[in-house]
Specification:
Layout (H helix, E strand, L loop, with lengths): L1 H42 L3 H18 L7
Length: 71
């Protein structure tokens, strides 16, 4: 009977170790994917977006130097 329990415990330990390893690999793969997406998003340049940001900064500058009388 003790031999049977020892075998079950070993099998259970092996199964838990395999599941744990699988979960760690999945987490690492998800982190890698997130890092790759973040790098890709940062590396993209949008001329349209750049133009909009420049226009906003120019308008703020004009407001700050009080070029408009109604603001």
């Amino acid at each position: 009977m003790g031999e049977l329990m020892a075998g079950k415990k070993k099998k259970m330990a092996a199964a838990l170790a395999a599941v744990s390893l699988y979960m760690q690999q999945e987490e690492a793969a998800a982190e890698e994917q997130q890092k790759a997406q973040a790098q890709q998003q940062r590396a993209q340049f949008s001329p349209w977006g750049q133009s909009g940001r420049q226009d906003m900064m120019a308008m703020r500058r004009l407001v700050q130097i009080r070029a408009f009388t109604r603001f």
